[in-house]
Design goal:
The chain is mainly β and 472 residues long. The chain has 4 helices and 31 strands. The chain has a single domain, classed as Beta Barrel (Porin). The chain is globular, with a radius of gyration of 22 Å.
Length: 472
């Protein structure tokens, strides 16, 4: 649902966010299951099922059996409230930007009922407000469903039917085995991984087998990525400058992009299926993924004067591991995929095989509160013909977090640096945490790079943001 609104949306959104927050009655929980002493707390599975209303479950495979035994559910438990609110103001700093400033607001709420220890039902919804002022300004409200489902729990089985958010993978922020989630591209690179995903319809079966956890997912109705407004600076087709994300303007004529008809046609039918098995050993946590799914992010195929979106089905086979060595968590992940969309030099469309791989390390220097996460990720196309896409991509990315003043403040830096081509993304932030569960923050997003890279395409979207966010 998309609702166009006039500029009065700005103060109304701020007031409504605040009013809804103060009506919230239930605080969320964060459950961290540490597993065995020797296991690395290495895999973060963001499970949108939210076992108790709005909680975030960080479920580590090492503790699967323990976590299952520890779950308790009270019959007749009913909770309703606000889960997540945010209001943010951003000012674009680059003189070439099509927008001068941006406003964003979000309210997410849910109602959760457990009539019996074995059964759980949840309804969730969210409203997002967007506005940009500039040469192509726009303002809109979007309503969307959240994680809404019926769930059954048995002794060694959990079955969930409805809409959910499930993110598989080992690496931080860029998990390569993430094959069953739906991307949220409405704000480009601004948000964290959890906020860059939307709930999608699925049937999910979880069971503990042979000392590990088996996770089966069927995407019963394909949901494509949530896209930005076509007038947003984050839209991947820049009609004003005649550019397409991922391509050099010297290869794709700007006139073609400026005059093209954009056909965002989502395919009918299911989105595919996937299976993931994770198990902890004394030496490492191991995960294996098999999936045959459509990618949720669109690929733009030139057909005459039309840019048609493609969502190819692809087989994916992945393996990942994590272990504790020298007081640090070391991660490795690799995925083979069969059908990745590319464009030949004559602008015709085809698919090729690819391998993605990554290694990472997370540590707390000096056994302090500071956290450092560093990752090296590569993507290599296999047997690609003469194409306009990049056949090899190598990046160094990570996050540094430093709490201070008795953890009432946090300074952080997210970054992504291209190694084979100039591609820069820097995201420094200072947040005030002393008003739990609220956070007040000031952040910057700096992008720069070659014309066919993410940083180069979005260089005009560099911005400074101030805002308020809270999760209950």
């Amino acid at each position: 649902m998309s609702i166009r609104c006039n500029p009065i949306f700005r103060p109304l959104l701020l007031v409504s966010c605040a009013a809804l927050h103060f009506q919230a009655s239930a605080a969320d929980e964060i459950i961290i299951d540490g597993g065995t002493d020797n296991a690395a707390p290495a895999e973060i599975v963001i499970d949108g099922g939210q076992p108790s209303g709005g909680e975030i479950l960080i479920d580590e495979p090492a503790a699967a059996a323990v976590a299952a035994a520890a779950e308790t559910h009270t019959a007749g438990n009913f909770r309703i409230g606000i889960d997540d609110v945010r209001f943010e103001y951003g000012s674009f700093t680059h003189s070439g930007s099509a927008s001068n400033r941006a406003l964003y607001g979000k309210v997410a709420a849910s109602a959760n009922w457990q009539p019996d220890p074995a059964w759980e039902m949840q309804l969730a919804a969210r409203v997002d407000g967007y506005e940009e002022d500039g040469s192509d300004d726009f303002s809109k409200l979007d309503g969307d469903y959240g994680d809404s489902f019926v769930r059954y729990r048995g002794d060694n089985l959990k079955v969930t039917f409805g809409t959910q958010t499930v993110i598989w993978g080992r690496l931080d922020e860029l998990p390569l085995s993430d094959r069953v989630s739906t991307a949220d591209l409405t704000r480009g690179v601004v948000d964290d991984l959890e906020d860059r995903r939307r709930s999608n319809p699925m049937l999910r079966v979880e069971s503990f087998i042979a000392g590990g956890k088996l996770d089966l997912v069927w995407l019963m109705d394909f949901r494509a990525a949530e896209m930005p407004d076509r007038n947003s600076v984050w839209y991947p087709v820049d009609r004003r400058k005649g550019r397409l994300l991922g391509f050099d303007p010297d290869d794709v004529p700007p006139a073609l992009i400026r005059n093209a008809v954009i056909d965002e046609d989502e395919p009918d039918g299911d989105g595919g299926f996937g299976a993931r098995y994770t198990r902890s050993h004394s030496f490492a946590d191991i995960g294996m993924t098999v999936a045959h799914t459509r990618q949720s992010m669109p690929y733009y195929r030139a057909v005459g004067n039309t840019l048609h979106t493609e969502y190819p089905r692809s087989w994916a086979f992945g393996i990942d591991a994590a272990t504790n060595i020298a007081d640090a968590i070391w991660r490795i992940e690799a995925v083979y995929s069969s059908d990745n969309p590319v464009t030949r030099r004559d602008l015709s469309y085809t698919t090729v095989e690819a391998v993605q791989w990554g290694v990472g390390v997370e540590m707390h220097p000096g056994d302090g509160d500071a956290r450092v996460n560093l990752q090296l990720i590569g993507s290599n196309l296999i047997g690609a013909p003469h194409i306009l896409d990049r056949s090899e991509i190598y990046t160094f990315n990570g996050e540094i977090e430093i709490p201070f003043d008795r953890e009432r403040w946090r300074a952080s830096l997210d970054f992504n640096l291209g190694l084979d081509a100039k591609d820069v993304y820097l995201n420094p932030e200072v947040a005030f945490l002393g008003w739990e569960p609220h956070e007040l923050f000031v952040a910057a997003h700096y992008l720069e790079g070659s014309v066919n890279t993410l940083g180069g395409f979005y260089r005009d979207a560099s911005m400074v943001n101030v805002g308020w966010r809270a999760k209950f």
